[in-house]
Write a structure and sequence with these properties.
By secondary structure, this protein is mainly alpha-helical. The chain is built from 2 helices and 2 strands. The chain has a two-stranded antiparallel ribbon with strand order 1-2. Helix 1 packs antiparallel against helix 2.
Amino acid sequence: MSIDPHVALQSLMAALEEHLTAAAQRRGDKDPAVEAAYLAVADAFEVYEEVLYDAYGEVTPLEIYEDDDEFDDGFEGPAQGAGERSSEVQPGQ
């Protein structure tokens, strides 16, 4: 991949900001804006992780949490109630 790691990091940060905005304006349990923002964060993180490794041979201590059984609509976001810690991005092993 030929993306500069700084550009990929800026894209990840922008996706996180958009996710925060969508979460703060959530309109129900399965708000499509939150679901889209969640997926955008996951995609931006994967790009950042790949270009970071390609450029410097480094990775982050994070990984994308995937649980196909948790949701049947393709959205893999957290099912916890407010105040519970989400596990969509966790420390790596």
